[in-house]
Amino acid sequence: MEASNGTKETPLPLALTSFQLSEEYGFLLPDPLTELPAPYGPWMEIAHDLPQLIASHQLRSQVHQMPQLSARHLRGHEELHLAHVVLSFITMGYIWQEGEEGTVKVLPRNLAVPFWEVSQALGLPPVLSHTDFVLANWRRKNPNGNLDTIIALPGGESLRGFILVTLLVEKAAVPGIKAIVRAIRAVLQLDEETLHKALRELAEAIGDMGKALKQMHDYVDPAVFYTVIRIFLSGWKDNPAMPEGLIYEGVSEEPMAYSGGSAAQSTVLHAFDELLGIRHSEESTAFLHRMREYMPPPHRAFVEEIGRAPSLKQHVLSSGDARLWAVFNQCVSALADFRSYHITIVTKYIAVAAVKAKAGQAEPGDRAGPSVGKPPSALEAKGTGGSHIFSFLKSVRDTTKEGAISA
Length: 407
Fold this sequence. Notes:
Pfam families: IDO (PF01231). Keywords: Dioxygenase, Heme, Immunity, Iron, Metal-binding, Oxidoreductase, Tryptophan catabolism. InterPro entries: Indolamine_dOase, Trp/Indoleamine_2_3_dOase-like. This is I23O2 dioxygenase. The chain is mainly α. It has one domain (about 15-400): Methane Monooxygenase Hydroxylase, Chain G, domain 1 (Up-down Bundle). The chain has helices at about 40-50, 50-55, 60-65, 75-95, 110-120, 130-135, 155-170, 175-190, 190-215, 215-220, 220-230, 265-275, 280-290, 295-310, 310-320, 320-360, 390-400; strands at about 105, 140, 145-150, 245-250. The strands form two sheets. Strands 1-4 form a two-stranded parallel ribbon. Strand 2 and strand 3 form a beta hairpin. Helix 1 (about 40-50) crosses helix 4 (about 75-95) and helix 7 packs antiparallel against helix 9. The chain is globular, with a radius of gyration of 22 Å. Mean pLDDT is about 90; it is low at about 1-10 and about 365-370.
C-alpha cells in the first residue's frame, strides 16, 4: 500500500506493515513459531502438557521445579511472542489450578521474572491477553490449511473451538482493515468513488465477522465454557477472588493487578470505531482505552493514527452525497448488528450457562480442571477483562447505533 506518485505523503497508516499488520492476516501473527530454541525446552514441555497437569493438580509442583531461565537469549518478535504465549498460559494454569478459592498470592521467581522480561520486550502486560490466546496461538495442522492451537488449557474441543472461531472472526476482519486504509486515503484525496467502494467493503467485512462468530454455536459447549474455560481467562484486577492482585516474585514486592483476556482487547473494533467516529459513554470509553494497554504497541499505534486522520463522518456529512451517507450508515448498522450478536453469544455462554450450572444441569463431556463440581462465581456479572459485562456490551451497542448520520 505505497502512496502513488504525486500523492502527498501523510503520517497516516498507509502501510500496514509499519504497524506489524499483515495484508493477508490483519492483526493475526502470520505463521507463528510453534517451538522455542532448545534452552527453553523446560517451558515448552510444561506448556504442551498443561491440560493434563492442571487436571491432575500437578502444575504448580512442576513449575516449582523449572530452572531459572533468562529471556535474554530470545531473538526477534516471533520468538518473544511464542515465549509470551507459553509463559502466560503457564501462569493462568498456575493461578487457577485449584479454582477461585485456591488462588495464590505470589507467582514464583522462575516464572515471574522471565515473563516480566518478555512482556517488557514486547510492550505487553505480564498476563494472558487476546494476543496470546488468539493472535499468536495458531498453527496449520496440515498443508490443507486445517487450523489448530499451539498451546491449550483445560476445555478440550470447546477450548480449541473458542480460540479458532475467534481467530476466524479476526481473519474475516482483514478486508475491513484494508478498507480503513483506503477510506482514509480517499478522504485525503477527495476521491468519493474510492471512498464509497472502501466503505462497502468495510460493511461487508463486518457482516462476514458476524457469520464467523455464529460458528461458536457449532464448536463450543456453553457448559464447558462457563464451568471450565472461563476461569483461566480471568485476571487479578477487579476480581473478588484475588482482591489484592498478584506479587511477581523477583520483579516487585508490591502486588500488581492486571485484567484477563477479553474480546475488548481485539484491535479490530477499536479501529472501526475510530474510523466511523463512534463515541461511547465516558465509563465505556475509559474501559476500552484501558484494554488498549493489552494490545501490541504497534496495533495500538494503528488505532491512534486512525484517530488522528481527518474525520470520515464530517467528510461524509459535508459531501452532501446521498450514496456516501447510505454506505456510511450501512457500516454503522453492520457494527451495531455485530455487537448485538455478541450480546446474544455472551447471554448463551455466560448468563444462561450460569443459571444451568447453579441448577446442576451442566454436564459437559470434556470437563477438566478445577471447576469440576463448582462453577466459578466471582465473575458472574463481569467479563474476564473486569467489566460489568452486559451493561458494558449494551452501552457500546447503543452508542454505536447513535453514530449513524440522520437525514
